[in-house]
Amino acid sequence: MILFFILASLSVAFSLLVVLRRNVVHCAMALAATLFLVAVLFVTLDAPMLGVLQVLVYAGAIMILILFVIMLLNPAALETRPAAWRILGALGAAALCVELAVLFFYRPASLSAPTAPAGFGGVEAVAESLFTGFVLPFEVASVLLLVAIIGAVALGKRGG
Amino acid sequence: MIVDFAIVAAKAFLVVFMVLNLAGVLGWIERKGSALIQDRIGANRAAIFGFAGMGLVNTLIADPIKFLTKEDFIPARGDKLLHTLAPCLALFPALVTFAVIPFGDVLVVGGREINLQVANLNIGILYIFGMASLSVYGIVIGAWASNNKFSLLGGVRGAAQMISYEIAMGLSVIGVLMVYGTLELQEMVRAQGKLFWGWLPAWGIFQQPVAFLLFFTAAIAETKRIPFDAPEGESEIVAGYHTEYSGGKFLMFFAGEFAEIVTAAGLVTTLFLGGWQAPYLLRDGFHSPWGGALLLSPLAVTLLEVFAFALKVVGVCWLQILVRWTLPRFRYDQVMRLGWKMLLPVALINVVVTAVWIVLGQRGVSHP
Fold first, then answer.
1. Which residue of B71, B182, B252, B331 is most buried, as measured by CB atoms within 10 A?
2. How far apart, in Å, are the Cα atoms of A134 and each of A37, A117, B250?
């Protein structure tokens, strides 16, 4: 429980840094740290597979690509946001805060979640559900990715 | 409780201690080995009272002192925080990866069974890939924080190269996973203890030779050493991502690279060379397939297993150094072409062939 609070407060602190820092690379690193901390949270909740996949996919691949793009573009040339965007953003944030507060104070009576069966979230369970029950969405997703790759190659060839 | 904690702490300390020391010794092997290969004398200048100790004084005493007492230079317009953070990020993954690599079987001391592995995760191999994927941060952040064109070029090259070869590396291991049927490294090593035709050890290299070649190539590319050192190619981009590093921080990059060599060797050993298995060594001693046995006490067997693991790791390290001083650097486009157009398709074919082989084998077993 103490570990949870340390990890949770650290990840909240780092996610605040993501929003508050002006330096884009600092933001990206803070986001990577947040993702890593969430992964550690998964591990403490007895879901090591989820935690490792979180690191592998988000911290290890997606964030690296984001950093790659930031490095190739010039982060110093940040455009200033028009005031309308700021108001919209503030409204959105306020709405989210209200929603969270409502959920926090008027929580439904039955909060006890059903206990997960043994081996839930393990390699076997994930593979089983991926290749039996969810095989069609899985294949559709892979076709979608293939289309995206072909599109990227086509665009790259035309540009070059 | 306290004893368990102490055992885990001792194992973790032992592994980090051994990896860092082997990384230091590898620095010596690298310089003396390169001298051997190139018919030079090699590091022999630094000496204490005339004693140079085959260059040991030079590489293990003089070099670290020089590194640690040099000025720590940070570019004026660079990013101070990230410039300091980057070497730590480079060293961290190389050190934590070794946690799941088993360096021996179960050691029984005073009725207590000690698994000779720091952390026994049932997703060991995924953990390794997760941590390895973080090693890109060190070079990308270091390159960006230096505020130097050459550093940035090196960082971009490094990120592209490491992501590309991670994919080939991951796919090459799939075949191995299918053969062993587990993600747990200790179980993989146990599975390699069998014998084929009564005499050939069932090591991964004999079951998955293609995967071994792919994995070893990708591992060398991941350590960013010649022939894959495009991120720091000194004839093109000065020193690449660590151009602006000096003193202790450069030493950390350097140590990280050598620690990566040790970790890669540990992985190759575990996946393909039988891990801590010594040929014909069972729990109670050697049993030759041609008759005859040499019985040993359990403690001696465990020590022999740890020794076999260490010997294989050092051997694979030496192989990597041999490759590094034998081949010239690949051009950057050649590195990319090798990764995407050769290793990746071959790895995919290996997966398909292995799957067909396993299914046919099961058919053959169930319908003789």
1. B252
2. 29, 19, 49
Beta-bridge mates of residue B196: B200
* pLDDT tens digit sequence for B292-301: 777 777 777 8
- Burial (Cβ within 10 Å: 0-12, 13-18, ≥19) of residue B19: buried
Maximum separation of any 2 CA atoms in chain B, in Å:
75
Average pLDDT, rounded, for chain A: 82
pLDDT in tens, B144-161: 888 888 888 888 888 888
CA-CA-CA-CA dihedral for A25, A30, A35, A38, to nearest 10: 180
DSSP letter (8 states) at residue B52? -
> Per mean pLDDT, which range of A78-82, A97-101, B83-87 is the poorest?
A78-82
Q: Which of B156, B128, B327 is nearest to B219 (CA)?
A: B128
Of A25, A52, A65, the CB nearest to B127: A52
Judging contacts by C-beta atoms under 8 Å, the chain B residues touching residue A160 are none
* Whole-Å CA distances, B148 to A66, A71, B233, B304, B317: 20, 12, 15, 50, 33
CB contact under 8 A, A29 and B136: no
> pLDDT tens across B255-290, in order?
888 888 888 898 899 888 888 887 777 777 777 777
Nearest CA to B308 among B216, B191, B189?
B189
Question: Whole-angstrom Cα distance, residue B105 to residue B149?
Answer: 49
Across the interface, of B130, B156, B163, the residue whose CB is closest to A56 is B130
Written as one letter, the residue type at B136 is V
Residues of B with CB under 8 A from a CB of A: 79, 81-82, 85, 121-123, 126-127, 129-134, 136-137, 140-141, 143-145, 152, 155-156, 159-160, 163, 166, 183
Of chain B, the end-to-end C-alpha distance in Å amounts to 52
Helix (H) / strand (E) element for B294: namely: strand B293-295
Confidence band, pLDDT 50/70/90 cuts, at residue B76: confident
- State the Cα–Cα distance between residues B323 and B265, nearest whole angstrom: 13
Q: Do B126 and A72 touch (CB under 8 A)?
A: no
- From A59's Cα to the closest Cα of chain B, the distance in A is 7
Round to whole Å and give the CA distance between B190 and B274: 8
Could you write out the three-class secondary structure of A100-137? HHHHHHCCCCCCCCCCCCCCCCCHHHHHHHHHCCCHHH
- Greatest CA separation for chain A: 60
As a whole number of angstroms, the distance between CA B360 and CA A143 comes to 28
pTM for the model? 0.82
